[in-house]
Amino acid sequence: MSIFQCIECKALHSLVVDEREGTVVCKKCGRIQIDKLIDDGPEWRNLTEEDGSRDQDPCRIGAPNNELLSDKGLCTVISKHETHYGLARWAQRSMSSSQDKTLSMTFSEIDDFCHILCLSDSISEEAKKIFRVLFLKKVTKGKSHIGILSAIIYCLCRKYGNKIPLKEILNINKITKNEIVRCYNTVKIHAPEAAINREDFSLFAKLAINFDFSNEMVTKCAQAMKKIKDCNLMVNEEEMALACAISLMVSWMSGKENLYPEDLRKTSGISEDDIRKCYRKLFLKRFFIFNGLGDKWSIATVANF
After folding, report:
1. Are 131 and 148 in contact (CB under 8 A)?
2. Residue 76 domain-assigned (yes or no)
3. Domain count, the chain
4. Each residue of 10-29: pLDDT tens digit?
5. What pTM does this model have?
């Protein structure tokens, strides 16, 4: 792989990387230009089950961190081998709390549920985060466990536009419609990010494609739009102009301070004056609308266009 000019013979495109030795060498004069290159690849060759060496895998990196567990999945796991099976069992009991065990079992149920419905991994991960929030708030006590999971999945399907009928979810989990309605109202109150209107979410998702918004930023925009509609605020404003103003404010709240009304004008087709006018009205009510969607300092220091 040629990279630059040799410092000895001045030949162009004559340098190659010797990955085995970790050096950069000129293939014409043999001069070593750089030595001790750092290899970012794996430490060893990862052996698979087809090699007949499942129990002799030398890979030492382990599983990725799990942000949904209290210890982030960093605890030591002892292999359940015949010689120390009892030690592994007692170690697992001592290191895993009852809360982590409940969450782990529920996460497995969510994975199975999403697999049956052919849902994406992103919906599965978001469902786990929402259930963890409800579980830590102790909202799930006294409620149907399967009903809460069904309500969360149903909310996320509506949010992302998956056309899965409610009857299919009811038939899979063997629950009644009244039961899932009660759980749906609970999820809607304690996890409003799951019960966002699909039309609002898709509206901001279209704007996010052009400005590299994260999924969290799109969710905040949709939550702000939902709060404005529920409280009958700014009823005379055009929906697209209001969406542009909300996107602009969330962008500055999140630290992306390179977005301006003229950029949104090119994407949305709304005039720059209308966006500025709507933004100034939103600016006066920003502490009420964005309460809980960001820290007070970021809300207070957004720009006023």
Report:
1. yes
2. no
3. 3
4. 888 788 888 777 888 888 88
5. 0.53
